[in-house]
Amino acid sequence: MKKLIGAAAIGALLIALTGCAGGGGGGEGDAGAEGDLIVGFSQVGAESGWRTANTTSIQSAFEDAGIELKFSDAQGKQENQIKAIRSYIQQQVDVIAFSPVVESGWDTVLKEAKDAGIPVVLTDRSVDSADDSLYASFLGSDFILEGEKAGEWVNTEFADADAVKVVELQGTTGAAPANDRAEGFRNVVTDPKFEIIASQTGDFTRAGGKQVMEAFLQANPQIDLVYAHNDDMGLGAIEAIEAAGMVPGEDIKIVTVDAVKDGMTALADGKINFIVECSPLLGPQLVEIAEKVAAGEDVEKRIVTEETTFTQEQAIEALPDRQY
Ligand code: AHR
Which pTM was predicted? Predict the structure, then answer.
C-alpha cells in the first residue's frame, strides 16, 4: 500500500508534467497495474514432499493473483529466516509471511516488523510468542489435533493387544508440528499397555527417518508400531524395515501425518496403515489474508486448515485425484 500511494503520487506528477493520462501502449508499467502489493515470504526449506507442495501452492497462488512475491528458502535455519525477514523490512514490502522453522526466538524480529508498520502473517507453523499483536494472523493446521487423530487410530487398531511397543520418529526439534504432534499423540494414547520405547528426530526427511529407524531396529528386538510425524520419515522407515527383512504395515504397523502422494501410495500398497492429513495447499488463503491485511482490513487471528484422515481403502479412492 505504501507503494500504491507512492505510485499514485508519481503518476499524478507525470500527468501534471506531460498533460497526458497514459492510455495504452502496454510496456512494463502495465504489469504493475495488476497489483501494487509486494509480499515477502520466508519458507522453511525443502525437507519433504509436503514442503515442496506448499511452496508450489504459495508461489502459484501469488502468480495467479498478479501479486509480486519475494521468496526465500531458509534451508532449515532460523538465522536465515531472521535475515530474510530483516531484508524484507529493509525493502519495505507490504506484507511479510513466513513458516517458522522452530517455535521460539522470534520476538525481536517480529517487533522490528511491527515497528516498521509491516503486518506479518504466519503460515503453516506458529511461534510461541506471548505477545500475539506481533503478527496479524496464523493460517495453518491444528498439529495437536493431528497427533490426537493418529493416537485415536492406534487405540482402535491395538484395542485387543496386551502390550504395544511404539517408536516415534519426531519432526525437527523445536518445530511446532514436532512439539504438537508428540503432545497430541500422548493426550490420547494413555493406556499403560502402550510403551514409547524410543523417540528421536528424523528432521522431517526421508533420509533422517531411515537412519533413525535403522538404529531403532538394531536396539530393539520388538517394535509393534512406528508413529512418524510425517510421511517422508515414514517412507524412510519403510526402507529400513524392508532392509531388515520385515514387512512394513504387517510386522510393524505405521501411522504417519501429511498424506502426500508418495505416502498415500504406500498406504494404498499396505506399507503404511493410516495417515492423518495435513494440507499444504495454503497459497490461495494466504493471498486473501495478505490482501486484507495490506488494505488494513480485519482478519481472523487464527485460521485452521480443514483436514481429514485416510485408511487404505480411502487412499486408493483418493489417489487418482490427489494434487500433491
Ligand atoms: O509444518 C508442516 C510439516 O513440515 C509437515 O508435516 C512436514 O512434512 C513438513 O516438513
Answer: 0.89
Using one digit for the tens of pLDDT, what is the confidence trace for 275-311? 999 999 999 999 999 999 999 999 999 999 999 999 9
Determine the distance separating the centroid of ligand 1 and the alpha carbon of 288, expressed in angstroms: 22
Cell 486448515, residue?
A: 305
Q: Which atom of ligand 1 is nearest to the CA of 49?
A: 8
CA of 161 to the centre of ligand 1 (A): 31
